[in-house]
Design a protein that fits this description.
single chain, about 65% helix, 18 helices, 3 strands, mainly alpha
């Protein structure tokens, strides 16, 4: 039977959205550092925009190279890829380069690479490989435990590097686990712990613990005839209570001083308006000043005069909001929404567990970065220093997201073929 060429199997909608995002990101990186007095070219290699163009060019090469790989490569070498990047994370702990308080970089000549960015897709590969077995079900405690270990290992090493923000991204791999049958209660407890953490910063622990006790007693009364549910309720109550009591420890012992201030400034932006609260305050001013249609390309005053720090990386969304307004922001949100929905559609049509798990891993990682980055810039989430996918300045981020996306598109192009071990 005649085989269709690879070009007809590739999901070009995802590729086009990828192209639109990287080009829009490049233009906004140029706008974010544009100085009308110097008026440097967008192609000037000494600027962030010029360097980003190099990263974009190399990312295109990476994307095309991935399409020439044998599709079985990813499944066959998933654990090898995972092992390589775990070794790199371990090496970073010993001899890594410290940047902005985080020892998570390795120097390569005049450039730096961040292995933890690449560890995200490596972990997604390993998780997909492990779950790609008919006898492994996430309702089984052993399978569930090993899956969590695969995710928690790079998360723990990234935390030890001082990069808590990047470490949190690994939690997004709960998305494919939930899709593959992880008990919903675990997801509910995880979300509850996060909400409890925030509530503990707003409400007295005594009041919160009293509320948990009342809710637990009511739940026990309503489920008195179901022993299994009673066990779940009691265990959940214990976990949530432990989370409440551990907030002070996390704030004082786990988070660094600047991270503590970022969390507290989320609750009260006026607690340190010229310090931890400065970035978010200026970010909201920049976005708000854009109005409906924005001030125009290269016309952002907040951008021109450097009021918002890290505007080519963590706060790149400010440039969109100020120069292109509500309309530009909606277009950007639309592009990301289109990409995410498309990836969900592609993941659902996969014929192998490996491809489906990896696809949902890509969805979870991109969604986490996208939502948290924008939530940071508008003051809905603490500033944890993670980039906007395909958009923010940086080679490690762009390369890692390119590999993540195009590896899945390669697998999707061969979805009709069953993955087999070499």
């Amino acid at each position: 039977m005649r085989q269709d060429p690879l070009s007809q199997k590739i999901d070009w909608i995802s590729v086009l959205v990828f192209g639109a995002l990287v080009i829009a990101g490049w233009l906004n990186i140029y706008a974010a550092e544009y100085d009308p007095e110097i008026n440097q070219s967008i192609f000037d290699i000494s600027t962030s925009a010029g360097k980003q163009l190099v990263w974009i060019g190399t990312s295109v090469v990476i994307a095309f190279t991935i399409f020439f790989f044998d599709y079985k490569f990813f499944d066959s070498f998933a654990y090898v890829i995972y092992g390589i990047f775990m070794a790199m994370l371990l090496f970073i702990l010993i001899g890594g380069k410290e940047v902005a308080g985080s020892k998570s970089w390795v120097g390569l000549g005049g450039f730096g690479l961040q292995p933890s960015e690449f560890a995200k897709f490596a972990t997604a590969f390993a998780l997909a490989k492990y779950l790609n077995h008919s006898t492994r079900k996430l309702t089984d405690l052993n399978t569930l435990s090993v899956s969590f270990v695969i995710i928690l290992l790079p998360m723990a090493m990234t935390i030890l590097q001082g990069d808590t923000g990047t470490a949190l991204v690994f939690a997004a791999l709960a998305v494919p686990m939930f899709r593959e049958g992880m008990p919903p209660l675990l997801l509910i407890v995880g979300i509850s712990i996060f909400l409890v953490f925030i509530l503990t910063l707003l409400v007295s622990q005594t009041v919160l613990l009293a509320g948990i006790a009342i809710v637990t007693l009511l739940a026990l009364g309503l489920n008195a005839r179901n022993p299994k549910r009673l066990v779940y309720i009691v265990v959940s109550a214990i976990v949530v209570t432990f989370a409440v009591r551990s907030v002070d420890f996390i704030l004082t012992e786990v988070l660094k001083p600047h991270q503590q201030k970022r969390v507290l400034s989320l609750i009260n932006p006026n607690i340190d308006p010229l310090g931890a609260g400065w970035n978010v305050t200026q970010s909201k001013i920049a976005i708000g000043s854009g109005g409906f249609a924005g001030k125009g390309f290269l016309e952002g005053t907040q951008t021109k005069f450097d009021f918002v720090p890290e505007q080519t990386t963590d706060f790149i969304f400010c440039t969109i909001g100020e120069e292109h307004g509500w309309l530009g922001s909606i277009v950007l949100l639309g592009l990301f929404t289109t990409l995410l929905l498309r990836l969900v559609y592609l993941a659902e049509r996969q014929k192998s567990t490996f491809s489906r798990v990896f696809g949902y891993g890509a969805v979870g990682i991109i969604f986490f970065h996208f939502t948290v980055n924008i939530a940071m810039t508008i003051g809905l989430f603490p500033v944890i220093g993670i980039p906007l996918p395909f958009f923010s300045y940086g080679g490690s981020s762009l390369w890692a997201f390119t590999i993540l996306l195009f590896s899945f598109l390669k697998l999707d192009a061969h979805r009709m073929q069953v993955l087999q071990r070499w």
